[in-house]
Amino acid sequence: MPKQAYMSWIPNIHFEISERKILLRIFDLVFIFLMIALVYNGFDFEYLKFKPNSWKWVFILIVYYTLFAAIFEMYDLQKAASFQTTLKNVLLTVSMTVLFFVLTPFFTPVLPENRLQILFFFGSLVLGLLLWRYTYINLISAPRFNKRILVVGNSFDINLIAENLHVADPNYRVIGFVNTDNIKPDSFDRRLMAIEVADLLNAIKRYSVSEIVVASPSKGVGVDLYNKLIILLEQGFPIREYTQVYEEITHRVPVQHVERDFYKYFPFSRSNKNRFYLFVSSFFNVIFAALVLLLTLALLPLILLGNLIANRGPLFYTQVRVGQNGRAFKMIKFRTMVVDAESGGVQWAQKKDTRITPFGKLLRNTRIDEIPQCINILKGEMSLIGPRPERPVFVKELSEKIPFYEIRHVVKPGLTGWAQVRGRYAESVDDTLEKLQYDLFYIKHRNMFLDLNILLKTISTVIYYRGQ
Protein backbone atom coordinates (compact mmCIF):
# COMPACT_ATOMS: atom_id res chain seq x y z
CA MET A 1 0.00 0.00 0.00
CA PRO A 2 1.49 3.41 -0.91
CA LYS A 3 2.59 5.70 1.86
CA GLN A 4 0.06 8.37 0.92
CA ALA A 5 -2.75 6.01 1.87
CA TYR A 6 -1.92 6.63 5.50
CA MET A 7 -2.08 10.38 5.12
CA SER A 8 -5.87 10.30 5.37
CA TRP A 9 -5.81 10.11 9.16
CA ILE A 10 -7.14 13.25 10.82
CA PRO A 11 -6.00 13.43 14.45
CA ASN A 12 -8.37 14.61 17.13
CA ILE A 13 -8.27 18.31 17.77
CA HIS A 14 -6.13 18.80 20.85
CA PHE A 15 -4.79 21.87 22.60
CA GLU A 16 -1.31 21.59 24.08
CA ILE A 17 -0.71 22.74 27.65
CA SER A 18 0.83 26.03 26.52
CA GLU A 19 -2.01 26.60 24.05
CA ARG A 20 -4.67 26.05 26.71
CA LYS A 21 -2.96 28.49 29.06
CA ILE A 22 -2.76 31.09 26.30
CA LEU A 23 -6.45 30.56 25.52
CA LEU A 24 -7.33 31.05 29.18
CA ARG A 25 -5.30 34.25 29.43
CA ILE A 26 -6.58 35.80 26.20
CA PHE A 27 -10.26 34.94 26.57
CA ASP A 28 -10.30 35.89 30.25
CA LEU A 29 -9.47 39.44 29.17
CA VAL A 30 -11.77 39.32 26.13
CA PHE A 31 -14.78 38.34 28.24
CA ILE A 32 -13.89 40.83 30.98
CA PHE A 33 -13.83 43.81 28.63
CA LEU A 34 -16.81 42.53 26.64
CA MET A 35 -18.94 42.38 29.81
CA ILE A 36 -17.69 45.80 30.96
CA ALA A 37 -18.69 47.30 27.61
CA LEU A 38 -22.12 45.64 27.65
CA VAL A 39 -22.92 46.57 31.25
CA TYR A 40 -21.68 50.14 31.22
CA ASN A 41 -23.14 51.01 27.84
CA GLY A 42 -26.39 49.18 28.58
CA PHE A 43 -26.93 51.02 31.86
CA ASP A 44 -25.35 54.27 30.65
CA PHE A 45 -22.80 54.32 33.48
CA GLU A 46 -19.87 56.71 33.17
CA TYR A 47 -17.35 55.03 35.47
CA LEU A 48 -15.73 52.66 32.98
CA LYS A 49 -16.94 53.89 29.61
CA PHE A 50 -14.35 53.52 26.90
CA LYS A 51 -12.92 56.92 25.93
CA PRO A 52 -9.78 58.11 24.09
CA ASN A 53 -7.74 58.10 27.33
CA SER A 54 -9.13 54.81 28.61
CA TRP A 55 -5.89 52.99 27.81
CA LYS A 56 -4.53 53.95 31.25
CA TRP A 57 -7.17 52.17 33.29
CA VAL A 58 -7.35 49.33 30.76
CA PHE A 59 -3.62 48.73 31.24
CA ILE A 60 -3.91 48.88 35.04
CA LEU A 61 -6.85 46.47 35.02
CA ILE A 62 -4.93 44.00 32.83
CA VAL A 63 -1.88 44.17 35.13
CA TYR A 64 -3.90 43.64 38.31
CA TYR A 65 -6.00 40.87 36.86
CA THR A 66 -2.98 39.02 35.42
CA LEU A 67 -1.14 39.28 38.75
CA PHE A 68 -4.00 38.06 40.94
CA ALA A 69 -5.07 35.42 38.42
CA ALA A 70 -1.59 33.91 38.72
CA ILE A 71 -1.63 34.12 42.53
CA PHE A 72 -5.07 32.52 42.80
CA GLU A 73 -4.17 29.75 40.33
CA MET A 74 -6.55 30.70 37.52
CA TYR A 75 -4.13 29.19 34.99
CA ASP A 76 -3.62 25.88 36.77
CA LEU A 77 -5.14 23.54 34.18
CA GLN A 78 -6.23 20.87 36.64
CA LYS A 79 -8.03 23.45 38.78
CA ALA A 80 -9.42 25.18 35.69
CA ALA A 81 -11.12 21.90 34.74
CA SER A 82 -13.31 22.04 37.89
CA PHE A 83 -16.14 24.59 37.91
CA GLN A 84 -16.40 24.54 41.70
CA THR A 85 -12.72 25.38 42.10
CA THR A 86 -12.96 27.90 39.27
CA LEU A 87 -15.86 29.68 40.99
CA LYS A 88 -13.84 30.09 44.19
CA ASN A 89 -10.74 31.29 42.34
CA VAL A 90 -12.74 33.72 40.18
CA LEU A 91 -14.33 35.34 43.25
CA LEU A 92 -10.96 35.70 44.98
CA THR A 93 -9.22 37.03 41.87
CA VAL A 94 -11.94 39.53 40.97
CA SER A 95 -12.27 40.73 44.58
CA MET A 96 -8.57 41.59 44.82
CA THR A 97 -8.45 43.00 41.29
CA VAL A 98 -11.39 45.36 41.90
CA LEU A 99 -10.08 46.36 45.35
CA PHE A 100 -6.64 47.31 44.08
CA PHE A 101 -8.12 48.95 40.98
CA VAL A 102 -10.45 51.32 42.86
CA LEU A 103 -7.68 52.17 45.35
CA THR A 104 -5.19 53.12 42.61
CA PRO A 105 -5.11 56.91 42.12
CA PHE A 106 -4.34 58.90 38.96
CA PHE A 107 -4.38 55.99 36.50
CA THR A 108 -7.95 54.82 37.14
CA PRO A 109 -11.23 56.75 36.75
CA VAL A 110 -12.45 58.90 39.64
CA LEU A 111 -14.80 56.91 41.84
CA PRO A 112 -18.43 57.49 40.83
CA GLU A 113 -20.89 59.20 43.15
CA ASN A 114 -23.21 56.25 42.61
CA ARG A 115 -21.17 53.51 44.31
CA LEU A 116 -23.53 50.95 42.78
CA GLN A 117 -21.43 51.22 39.62
CA ILE A 118 -18.52 49.58 41.46
CA LEU A 119 -20.78 46.66 42.35
CA PHE A 120 -21.73 46.37 38.67
CA PHE A 121 -18.00 46.48 37.85
CA PHE A 122 -17.40 43.53 40.20
CA GLY A 123 -20.42 41.64 38.86
CA SER A 124 -19.50 42.14 35.21
CA LEU A 125 -16.02 40.68 35.79
CA VAL A 126 -17.38 37.68 37.68
CA LEU A 127 -20.13 37.01 35.13
CA GLY A 128 -17.83 37.36 32.13
CA LEU A 129 -15.19 35.07 33.59
CA LEU A 130 -17.67 32.40 34.69
CA LEU A 131 -19.34 32.36 31.26
CA TRP A 132 -16.00 31.84 29.55
CA ARG A 133 -14.65 29.31 32.06
CA TYR A 134 -17.89 27.28 31.89
CA THR A 135 -17.47 27.20 28.11
CA TYR A 136 -13.83 26.15 28.50
CA ILE A 137 -14.69 23.29 30.87
CA ASN A 138 -17.44 21.92 28.64
CA LEU A 139 -15.63 22.35 25.33
CA ILE A 140 -11.86 22.71 25.31
CA SER A 141 -11.28 20.73 28.52
CA ALA A 142 -13.82 18.05 27.59
CA PRO A 143 -12.79 14.44 26.77
CA ARG A 144 -13.46 14.99 23.05
CA PHE A 145 -10.33 17.16 22.98
CA ASN A 146 -8.12 14.58 24.71
CA LYS A 147 -4.78 13.91 23.09
CA ARG A 148 -4.82 10.20 22.18
CA ILE A 149 -1.40 8.65 22.72
CA LEU A 150 0.15 5.36 21.69
CA VAL A 151 3.16 4.29 23.78
CA VAL A 152 6.02 2.22 22.37
CA GLY A 153 7.77 0.65 25.33
CA ASN A 154 8.63 -2.26 27.59
CA SER A 155 5.77 -4.13 29.26
CA PHE A 156 7.10 -3.29 32.73
CA ASP A 157 6.77 0.47 32.15
CA ILE A 158 3.40 0.71 30.37
CA ASN A 159 1.11 1.20 33.38
CA LEU A 160 3.48 3.64 35.07
CA ILE A 161 3.91 5.71 31.91
CA ALA A 162 0.16 5.88 31.26
CA GLU A 163 -0.52 6.91 34.86
CA ASN A 164 2.27 9.51 34.98
CA LEU A 165 1.10 11.22 31.80
CA HIS A 166 -2.58 11.26 32.79
CA VAL A 167 -1.90 12.58 36.30
CA ALA A 168 0.27 15.37 34.91
CA ASP A 169 -2.26 16.30 32.23
CA PRO A 170 -5.79 14.79 32.36
CA ASN A 171 -6.19 15.65 28.68
CA TYR A 172 -3.24 13.42 27.81
CA ARG A 173 -4.79 9.97 27.33
CA VAL A 174 -2.78 6.83 26.60
CA ILE A 175 -5.11 4.52 24.66
CA GLY A 176 -2.74 1.68 23.81
CA PHE A 177 0.80 0.40 23.55
CA VAL A 178 3.24 -1.48 21.36
CA ASN A 179 5.21 -3.94 23.48
CA THR A 180 8.92 -3.91 22.60
CA ASP A 181 10.27 -6.57 24.96
CA ASN A 182 7.91 -9.36 23.82
CA ILE A 183 7.05 -10.12 27.45
CA LYS A 184 3.39 -10.44 28.28
CA PRO A 185 2.63 -8.08 31.18
CA ASP A 186 1.45 -9.78 34.37
CA SER A 187 -1.15 -7.07 34.73
CA PHE A 188 -1.94 -3.87 32.92
CA ASP A 189 -4.78 -1.42 32.62
CA ARG A 190 -7.44 -3.25 30.59
CA ARG A 191 -8.42 0.07 29.03
CA LEU A 192 -5.09 0.05 27.19
CA MET A 193 -5.10 -1.75 23.85
CA ALA A 194 -2.16 -3.96 22.90
CA ILE A 195 -1.21 -3.07 19.32
CA GLU A 196 0.81 -5.44 17.16
CA VAL A 197 3.64 -3.95 15.10
CA ALA A 198 2.07 -5.24 11.88
CA ASP A 199 -1.17 -3.40 12.69
CA LEU A 200 0.43 -0.14 13.85
CA LEU A 201 -0.35 2.01 10.81
CA ASN A 202 -3.97 0.87 10.63
CA ALA A 203 -4.42 1.29 14.40
CA ILE A 204 -3.33 4.92 14.22
CA LYS A 205 -6.04 5.64 11.68
CA ARG A 206 -8.66 3.44 13.35
CA TYR A 207 -8.28 4.94 16.83
CA SER A 208 -7.48 8.53 15.78
CA VAL A 209 -4.12 8.47 17.52
CA SER A 210 -2.63 11.95 17.92
CA GLU A 211 0.95 11.08 18.82
CA ILE A 212 3.35 8.20 19.44
CA VAL A 213 5.56 8.32 22.53
CA VAL A 214 8.64 6.08 22.40
CA ALA A 215 9.63 4.93 25.88
CA SER A 216 11.87 2.06 24.84
CA PRO A 217 15.68 2.10 24.45
CA SER A 218 16.73 2.19 20.80
CA LYS A 219 17.93 -1.42 21.01
CA GLY A 220 14.36 -2.46 21.89
CA VAL A 221 12.95 -1.06 18.64
CA GLY A 222 13.07 -3.91 16.14
CA VAL A 223 13.54 -3.54 12.39
CA ASP A 224 9.84 -3.90 11.54
CA LEU A 225 8.80 -1.36 14.17
CA TYR A 226 11.61 0.97 13.13
CA ASN A 227 10.44 0.90 9.50
CA LYS A 228 6.84 1.61 10.52
CA LEU A 229 7.96 4.59 12.62
CA ILE A 230 10.04 5.91 9.72
CA ILE A 231 6.98 5.75 7.42
CA LEU A 232 4.96 7.75 9.94
CA LEU A 233 7.76 10.23 10.51
CA GLU A 234 8.09 10.86 6.77
CA GLN A 235 4.37 11.67 6.68
CA GLY A 236 4.80 14.27 9.43
CA PHE A 237 3.17 12.19 12.15
CA PRO A 238 4.30 13.32 15.64
CA ILE A 239 6.69 10.86 17.29
CA ARG A 240 8.44 11.92 20.47
CA GLU A 241 10.70 10.44 23.10
CA TYR A 242 9.13 9.75 26.50
CA THR A 243 11.51 11.78 28.66
CA GLN A 244 10.92 14.81 26.42
CA VAL A 245 7.14 14.47 26.80
CA TYR A 246 7.41 13.76 30.52
CA GLU A 247 9.50 16.87 31.14
CA GLU A 248 7.21 19.04 29.04
CA ILE A 249 3.95 18.15 30.77
CA THR A 250 5.19 17.52 34.34
CA HIS A 251 7.93 20.18 34.49
CA ARG A 252 10.20 17.54 36.02
CA VAL A 253 13.36 15.81 34.76
CA PRO A 254 12.78 12.02 34.84
CA VAL A 255 16.10 11.01 36.36
CA GLN A 256 15.00 7.38 36.74
CA HIS A 257 14.92 7.06 32.92
CA VAL A 258 18.12 8.98 32.12
CA GLU A 259 20.68 6.18 32.65
CA ARG A 260 23.98 6.64 30.74
CA ASP A 261 22.69 9.31 28.40
CA PHE A 262 22.64 11.89 31.21
CA TYR A 263 24.39 14.53 29.09
CA LYS A 264 21.32 14.66 26.81
CA TYR A 265 19.03 15.65 29.66
CA PHE A 266 21.13 18.08 31.68
CA PRO A 267 22.12 20.91 29.32
CA PHE A 268 21.91 23.31 32.26
CA SER A 269 20.33 26.71 31.84
CA ARG A 270 22.61 29.37 30.43
CA SER A 271 21.41 31.54 33.32
CA ASN A 272 23.69 29.50 35.60
CA LYS A 273 26.63 31.28 33.91
CA ASN A 274 24.82 34.45 32.81
CA ARG A 275 26.43 37.31 34.73
CA PHE A 276 23.49 39.66 34.24
CA TYR A 277 21.00 37.11 35.56
CA LEU A 278 23.26 36.22 38.50
CA PHE A 279 23.80 39.91 39.34
CA VAL A 280 20.09 40.75 39.20
CA SER A 281 19.27 37.64 41.22
CA SER A 282 21.88 38.47 43.88
CA PHE A 283 20.78 42.11 44.06
CA PHE A 284 17.13 41.12 44.43
CA ASN A 285 18.07 38.52 47.07
CA VAL A 286 19.71 41.17 49.25
CA ILE A 287 16.90 43.72 48.85
CA PHE A 288 14.21 41.10 49.48
CA ALA A 289 15.93 39.60 52.52
CA ALA A 290 16.57 43.01 54.10
CA LEU A 291 12.96 44.17 53.57
CA VAL A 292 11.49 40.92 54.92
CA LEU A 293 13.65 41.08 58.04
CA LEU A 294 12.61 44.71 58.64
CA LEU A 295 8.92 43.85 58.21
CA THR A 296 9.32 40.87 60.53
CA LEU A 297 10.29 43.23 63.35
CA ALA A 298 6.64 44.32 63.43
CA LEU A 299 5.52 40.69 63.80
CA LEU A 300 8.19 39.76 66.32
CA PRO A 301 6.15 40.62 69.47
CA LEU A 302 3.32 38.36 68.27
CA ILE A 303 5.77 35.59 67.36
CA LEU A 304 7.41 35.86 70.80
CA LEU A 305 4.00 35.72 72.50
CA GLY A 306 2.91 32.69 70.45
CA ASN A 307 6.20 30.96 71.20
CA LEU A 308 5.78 31.64 74.93
CA ILE A 309 2.23 30.27 75.04
CA ALA A 310 2.18 27.35 72.58
CA ASN A 311 5.79 26.62 71.67
CA ARG A 312 7.73 26.80 74.93
CA GLY A 313 11.46 26.86 74.50
CA PRO A 314 14.01 28.69 72.32
CA LEU A 315 12.54 30.82 69.54
CA PHE A 316 15.27 30.08 67.00
CA TYR A 317 16.62 26.77 65.78
CA THR A 318 19.79 26.16 63.78
CA GLN A 319 20.65 23.06 61.82
CA VAL A 320 23.56 22.10 59.58
CA ARG A 321 22.54 21.86 55.92
CA VAL A 322 24.41 21.20 52.68
CA GLY A 323 24.73 24.20 50.38
CA GLN A 324 26.23 25.04 47.00
CA ASN A 325 29.12 22.79 45.93
CA GLY A 326 28.52 20.59 48.98
CA ARG A 327 29.59 23.23 51.54
CA ALA A 328 27.89 22.88 54.92
CA PHE A 329 26.31 25.88 56.66
CA LYS A 330 24.04 26.55 59.63
CA MET A 331 20.48 27.28 58.51
CA ILE A 332 18.34 29.41 60.83
CA LYS A 333 14.61 28.87 61.39
CA PHE A 334 11.94 29.69 63.92
CA ARG A 335 11.59 26.51 65.98
CA THR A 336 8.39 24.62 65.15
CA MET A 337 8.99 21.30 66.94
CA VAL A 338 9.26 20.35 70.58
CA VAL A 339 12.65 20.79 72.23
CA ASP A 340 14.91 17.75 71.67
CA ALA A 341 12.65 16.52 68.86
CA GLU A 342 15.40 14.15 67.71
CA SER A 343 16.47 12.79 71.07
CA GLY A 344 15.74 9.32 69.67
CA GLY A 345 17.87 9.89 66.58
CA VAL A 346 17.64 11.57 63.19
CA GLN A 347 14.37 10.92 61.39
CA TRP A 348 12.34 12.12 58.41
CA ALA A 349 9.81 14.86 59.07
CA GLN A 350 6.25 13.66 58.46
CA LYS A 351 3.30 15.56 57.02
CA LYS A 352 1.36 15.22 60.30
CA ASP A 353 4.39 15.06 62.55
CA THR A 354 3.41 14.78 66.22
CA ARG A 355 6.60 16.62 67.19
CA ILE A 356 5.26 19.86 65.70
CA THR A 357 3.82 22.22 68.32
CA PRO A 358 0.46 24.02 67.82
CA PHE A 359 2.19 27.35 67.22
CA GLY A 360 4.81 25.62 65.11
CA LYS A 361 2.07 24.31 62.83
CA LEU A 362 0.86 27.87 62.25
CA LEU A 363 4.39 29.03 61.49
CA ARG A 364 4.90 26.19 59.00
CA ASN A 365 1.59 26.58 57.18
CA THR A 366 2.20 30.29 56.67
CA ARG A 367 5.92 29.76 55.90
CA ILE A 368 6.79 32.27 58.64
CA ASP A 369 9.20 29.71 60.13
CA GLU A 370 11.43 30.18 57.07
CA ILE A 371 11.86 33.96 57.48
CA PRO A 372 15.08 33.79 59.57
CA GLN A 373 16.74 32.17 56.56
CA CYS A 374 16.85 35.68 55.11
CA ILE A 375 19.94 36.00 57.34
CA ASN A 376 21.46 33.08 55.43
CA ILE A 377 20.58 34.89 52.18
CA LEU A 378 22.36 38.06 53.34
CA LYS A 379 25.39 35.94 54.27
CA GLY A 380 25.45 34.52 50.73
CA GLU A 381 24.79 30.95 51.88
CA MET A 382 21.33 30.77 50.34
CA SER A 383 19.26 32.35 47.58
CA LEU A 384 15.61 33.35 47.51
CA ILE A 385 14.88 30.62 44.96
CA GLY A 386 16.57 27.27 44.57
CA PRO A 387 16.48 23.66 45.79
CA ARG A 388 15.80 23.40 49.52
CA PRO A 389 18.97 22.54 51.49
CA GLU A 390 19.06 19.10 53.07
CA ARG A 391 20.88 17.71 56.10
CA PRO A 392 24.26 15.98 55.54
CA VAL A 393 23.04 12.63 56.87
CA PHE A 394 20.13 12.62 54.43
CA VAL A 395 22.30 13.86 51.55
CA LYS A 396 24.64 10.91 52.08
CA GLU A 397 21.73 8.45 52.19
CA LEU A 398 19.87 9.93 49.22
CA SER A 399 23.01 10.25 47.07
CA GLU A 400 23.48 6.49 47.37
CA LYS A 401 19.87 5.69 46.47
CA ILE A 402 18.88 8.34 43.94
CA PRO A 403 20.82 8.95 40.70
CA PHE A 404 22.17 12.46 40.08
CA TYR A 405 21.08 13.69 43.53
CA GLU A 406 24.29 15.71 44.00
CA ILE A 407 23.49 17.81 40.92
CA ARG A 408 21.08 19.91 43.01
CA HIS A 409 24.13 21.35 44.79
CA VAL A 410 25.48 23.13 41.68
CA VAL A 411 23.35 26.17 42.63
CA LYS A 412 22.68 27.88 45.95
CA PRO A 413 19.86 26.40 48.02
CA GLY A 414 16.71 28.50 48.21
CA LEU A 415 14.17 29.86 50.65
CA THR A 416 11.53 28.58 48.25
CA GLY A 417 11.78 26.58 45.05
CA TRP A 418 10.10 24.81 42.16
CA ALA A 419 9.83 21.58 44.16
CA GLN A 420 8.20 23.41 47.09
CA VAL A 421 5.44 25.00 45.01
CA ARG A 422 4.83 21.97 42.77
CA GLY A 423 5.71 18.82 44.70
CA ARG A 424 4.14 17.07 47.67
CA TYR A 425 5.64 16.77 51.13
CA ALA A 426 8.72 14.54 51.14
CA GLU A 427 8.26 11.76 53.69
CA SER A 428 10.28 9.06 51.94
CA VAL A 429 12.94 8.35 49.32
CA ASP A 430 10.22 8.10 46.63
CA ASP A 431 8.86 11.54 47.55
CA THR A 432 12.39 12.93 47.54
CA LEU A 433 12.91 11.50 44.04
CA GLU A 434 9.92 13.50 42.83
CA LYS A 435 11.22 16.68 44.46
CA LEU A 436 14.65 16.08 42.90
CA GLN A 437 12.98 15.90 39.49
CA TYR A 438 11.51 19.35 40.09
CA ASP A 439 14.84 20.70 41.38
CA LEU A 440 16.68 19.47 38.29
CA PHE A 441 14.02 21.02 36.06
CA TYR A 442 14.62 24.35 37.78
CA ILE A 443 18.40 24.09 37.46
CA LYS A 444 18.02 23.15 33.80
CA HIS A 445 15.60 25.95 32.92
CA ARG A 446 16.13 28.68 35.53
CA ASN A 447 15.52 32.21 34.32
CA MET A 448 13.82 35.38 35.52
CA PHE A 449 10.37 34.32 34.30
CA LEU A 450 10.57 30.96 36.08
CA ASP A 451 11.76 32.74 39.24
CA LEU A 452 8.78 35.10 39.05
CA ASN A 453 6.45 32.16 38.52
CA ILE A 454 7.84 30.48 41.66
CA LEU A 455 7.38 33.68 43.69
CA LEU A 456 3.73 33.96 42.64
CA LYS A 457 3.11 30.29 43.42
CA THR A 458 4.77 30.76 46.80
CA ILE A 459 2.31 33.56 47.56
CA SER A 460 -0.49 31.15 46.57
CA THR A 461 0.94 28.55 48.96
CA VAL A 462 0.85 31.04 51.83
CA ILE A 463 -2.65 32.33 50.98
CA TYR A 464 -4.09 28.83 50.69
CA TYR A 465 -2.33 27.80 53.91
CA ARG A 466 -0.47 24.95 52.22
CA GLY A 467 2.94 25.45 53.81
CA GLN A 468 4.81 22.38 55.03
From TrEMBL:
Belongs to the bacterial sugar transferase family. NCBIfam families: EPS_sugtrans (TIGR03025). It comes from Leeuwenhoekiella marinoflava. Its main location: membrane. The keyword Transferase applies. It is a multi-pass membrane protein. The chain crosses the membrane at residues 22-43, 55-75, 87-107, 119-139, 276-304. It is found in: Membrane. One of its GO terms (cellular component) is membrane. Keywords: Membrane, Transferase, Transmembrane, Transmembrane helix. GO terms for molecular function: phosphotransferase activity, for other substituted phosphate groups. Residues 283-463 form the Bacterial sugar transferase domain. The keyword Signal does not apply. Gene3D superfamilies: NAD(P)-binding Rossmann-like Domain. This is Exopolysaccharide biosynthesis polyprenyl glycosylphosphotransferase.
